[in-house]
Amino acid sequence: SAVIVTLNDEKRLGPALRSLEGVVSEVVVLDGLSADGTVKLAREYTPRIHERAAGDPAGQRNYGAGQASFPWVLALEADERLSPELRDEVLRLRRTEPECAGFAVPRRTSYLGRWVRHSGWAPAPPVRLYRRDRGRWEGDAIETRLALDGPVERLGSPLHHFPFASIGEHAARVNRVSGLEAQRLYAEGRKARLAGLVARPTLRCLRTYLLELGCLDGFPGLVISVLDGYGAFLRSAKLRSIWKKGEHIEPFPG
């Protein structure tokens, strides 16, 4: 079973669904009550659609996996798609009986028309194909991860990732995530020093561009580096604002 959790993903969901055709036995879409045409689009590809108010991401993923009919789950994001090579590899895998609990899948990210190979965007391959009875999603509103009970093997072909359609969309996510990070730091009793508002963003930008080799990713690498620094500034500024104004905020959704 392929499981996709969606929320207002009408503009990006189609390629993900098309990449699954002929590869999996069923596609399960769990939608978080989208305000656009996400559900209408999904119905063109699968009847297995469930709607549930968007809560914490890990909870949504676990609920979606619980709707799957088959023991193996392929977790896919709306902005991802199986590469042709990965389609073939998954089809070959279906003819075997894997003894592991899951498979890590390398991910190749495209941004501003170019594959990003550095800039901190090439982390360890995430586990995306797993036995439903041996895996559970954990995490908070910022990041989720799959905890597996058993060994993990690795597939060789990449999952293609298209996270942002524009720089504006990327900047909007940086703004949203920095607010969540500030809330988490506030809940932990952390504070932002005035000097850090200058030093931390500058160091973050330079780290991405030089140490993480964003300079080798051309213009996309430069944009990623600058927005990384911008995110560090926003996180510190928002955290300082919370403490200085004594704002009352809701507990961090962890």
Structure write-up:
Helix 5 (167-187) packs parallel to helix 7 (218-245) and helix 6 packs antiparallel against helix 7 (218-245). The chain has seven helices and 13 strands. It is 40% helix and 21% strand. It is globular. The protein has a seven-stranded mixed β-sheet with strand order 3-2-1-4-9-6-12, with helices on both faces. The chain has 254 residues and is α/β, with parallel strands linked by helices. Helix 2 links the parallel strand 2 (27-31) and strand 3 (49-51).
Topology:
Blueprint: E1 2-6, H1 10-20, E2 27-31, H2 38-42, E3 49-51, H3 57-66, E4 72-76, E5 80-82, H4 84-93, E6 102-104, E7 107-111, E8 114-116, E9 127-131, E10 135-139, E11 144-148, E12 152-154, E13 159-161, H5 167-187, H6 196-211, H7 218-245
Parallel strand pairs: 1-2, 1-4, 2-3, 6-12, 7-13
Antiparallel strand pairs: 4-9, 5-13, 6-9, 7-8, 10-11
Helix pairs in contact: 5-7, 6-7
Q: Distance between termini? A: 28 Å
- Gyration radius, in Å: 20 Å
Please state the average pLDDT score. 94
What profile does the largest beta sheet have? 7 strands, mixed
Main β-sheet, spatial strand arrangement: 3-2-1-4-9-6-12
Strand content: 15-25%
Run of helices and strands? EHEHEHEEHEEEEEEEEHHH
Question: Main traits of this protein?
Answer:
single chain; 254 residues; alpha/beta; 4-stranded mixed beta sheet
